[in-house]
Amino acid sequence: MDRVSSSEEPTAKISSIFIYPIKSCRGISVSQAPISPTGFQWDRQWLVVNSKGRAYTQRVEPKLALVEVELQKEAFTEGWEPTKSSYLVVRAPGMDALKVCLGKQCAKADGVSVWEWSGSALDEGDEAAQWFSTYLGKPSRLVRFNAASETRAVDPKFAPGFKIMFSDEYPFLLISQGSLDALNELLKESVPINRFRPNILVDGCEPFSEDLWKDLRINGFKFQGVKLCSRCKVPTINQENGIAGSEPSETLKEFRSDKVLRPNKKQQGKVYFGQNLVCKDSLTQGKGKAISVGDCVYVLSKASSPAEAAA
Question: Which of 284, 45, 42 has its CA nearest to residue 150?
Answer without folding.
Answer: 45
